[in-house]
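Weekly sync, protein design subgroup
Attendees: M.S., D.O., the rotation student, P.L. (late)

Item 1: inverse folding check
M.S. brought a backbone from last month's batch and wanted to see whether the design step gives back something sensible before we order anything. D.O. pointed out we never logged the input encoding, so this time it goes straight into the notes. Structure tokens as presented (497 positions):
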């Protein structure tokens, strides 16, 4: 742990736990309904709709085990994060907790890596949304749509935190209604209740009828984990947003307690529907997308267009939340002296404008790289941020190991959310995350992501350690200078004075 002065932000609780306007300049503009929908929608990314087909093709019905294992991992991580966030709500969330529990270098490193992850995501999602919009209105070029989408969501984030919350409420609401409807209609079709469904292909028999439940062997479950793990990123956003709500402690507790059913319904439930409605090796799952293929089987007209609307909503939701998350992490870093001070300044409405504009600027640059050099520069950015999600989860686990004792020492009454089976389940989570990182090295695509992400992490950690050394040497240098000046002053005094 690095040595730091007692006046550092990290040495005090990151934020008050009461209601009203936060003392750090942000405003409590998020309502309970905003937080509830942010929590629910945070686990539903565009990757669930777009990327699940590849996972099904690689693991077959056993992809359900992959989703279940990663889901259990996320539930444990969210429980640990919820324990810390309920005690000390903060716009910096796990970065602020790492700062306090593990040292200044840890908060600096994971904060900047997380910011980097989300600004790259901004480019990915802006491009994905632009492709859909260009298909509808080809008169506007793809780069033009990406620019329009980014500008609109930047404006909403700059207006107020309530604007972000309202947009996210409706974006997430559409995703939630769509998934819930898909699960209900799909279940009716699976059990032969829905008229029009193809009864010759639909049914739970599809889970074992085409080469067994694990057609590619047990190892395919691990392959599936690598393919689905990153679609869960975003569940932690609610703990950052809680710092700008009227009752942070209640919001975090509610979100943490509901994460189990959210993952069970939205991920396991919807994927179960897909692999039950049609054979896992159906070419349409990869060609059309898993959800479109399932909707076509049910007989839903214009399934592709319907899914495009839902995917666009998920993309806009991810963009909206990504910009919010990146800006609040930049704000927290600025507040702790780990980023330019301008990042910590807020407008009259409690909005960190400099943090937002700097985040979206890098996002624009990344979009340019994606159009100009997609296979070189942008591919490097994408891969070097690819494993950051796992690094964040590791840091959360290690920070919680230390923070538990700090919470009990400071105020045990703040321990309103407790990690189960502490510390054994925390260590088991650390072991599981470490295993996934090591296993990624055996996969060609995963190896590149882990290697480049570790390189990026090493650079950021190196900068953090150098900053810590310089910061630690300044007081000693200043003190030595003061003693020297004092001694020289005494020597220069006239005799007898």
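Designed sequence read out in the meeting:
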């Amino acid at each position: 742990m690095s040595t730091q002065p007692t006046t550092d932000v990290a040495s005090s609780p990151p934020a008050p736990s009461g209601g009203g306007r936060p003392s750090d300049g942000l405003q409590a503009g998020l309502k309970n309904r905003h937080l509830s929908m942010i929590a629910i929608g945070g686990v539903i990314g565009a990757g669930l709709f777009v990327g699940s087909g590849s996972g099904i093709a690689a693991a077959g019905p056993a992809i359900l085990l992959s989703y279940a294992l990663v889901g259990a991992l996320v539930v444990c991580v969210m429980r640990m994060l919820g324990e810390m966030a309920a005690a000390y709500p903060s716009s910096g969330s796990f970065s602020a907790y790492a700062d306090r529990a593990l040292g200044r270098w840890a908060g600096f490193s994971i904060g900047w890596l997380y910011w980097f992850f989300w600004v790259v995501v901004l480019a990915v999602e802006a491009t994905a949304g632009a492709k859909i919009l260009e298909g509808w209105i080809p008169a506007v070029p793809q780069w033009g749509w990406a620019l329009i989408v980014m500008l609109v969501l930047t404006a909403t984030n700059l207006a107020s935190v309530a604007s972000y919350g309202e947009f996210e409420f409706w974006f997430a609401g559409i995703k939630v209604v769509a998934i819930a409807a898909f699960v209900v209609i799909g279940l009716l079709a699976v059990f032969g209740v829905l008229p029009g469904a193809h009864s010759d292909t639909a049914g739970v028999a599809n889970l074992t009828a085409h080469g067994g439940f694990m057609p590619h062997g047990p190892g395919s479950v691990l392959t599936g984990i690598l393919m689905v793990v990153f679609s869960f990123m975003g569940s932690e956003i609610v703990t950052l947003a809680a710092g700008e709500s009227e009752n942070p402690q209640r919001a975090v507790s509610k979100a943490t307690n509901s994460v189990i059913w959210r993952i069970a319904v939205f991920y396991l439930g919807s994927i179960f529907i897909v692999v039950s409605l049609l054979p896992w090796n159906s070419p349409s799952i990869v060609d059309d997308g898993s959800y479109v293929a399932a909707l076509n089987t049910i007989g839903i007209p214009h399934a592709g267009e319907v899914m495009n609307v839902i995917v666009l909503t998920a993309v806009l939701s991810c963009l909206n939340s990504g910009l919010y998350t990146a800006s609040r992490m930049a704000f927290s870093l600025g507040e702790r002296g780990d980023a330019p001070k301008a990042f910590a300044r807020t407008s009259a409405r409690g909005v960190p404008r400099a943090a937002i504009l700097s985040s979206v600027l890098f996002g624009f640059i990344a979009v340019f790289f994606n159009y100009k050099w997609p296979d070189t520069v942008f591919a490097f950015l994408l891969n070097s941020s690819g494993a950051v999600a796992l690094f964040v989860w590791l840091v959360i686990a290690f920070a919680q190991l230390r923070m538990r004792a700090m919470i009990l020492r400071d105020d045990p009454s703040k321990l309103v959310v407790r990690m189960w089976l502490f510390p054994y389940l925390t260590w088991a989570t650390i072991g599981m995350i470490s295993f996934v990182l090591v296993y990624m090295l055996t996969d060609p695509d995963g190896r590149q992501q882990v290697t480049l992400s570790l390189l990026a992490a090493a650079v950021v950690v190196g900068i953090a350690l150098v900053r810590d050394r310089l910061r630690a040497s300044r007081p000693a240098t200043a003190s030595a200078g003061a003693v020297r000046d004092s001694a020289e002053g005494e020597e220069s005094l006239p005799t007898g004075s």
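Discussion: The two ends are 48 Å apart (CA to CA). The chain has 18 helices and no strands.
Action: P.L. to compare against the previous round before Friday.
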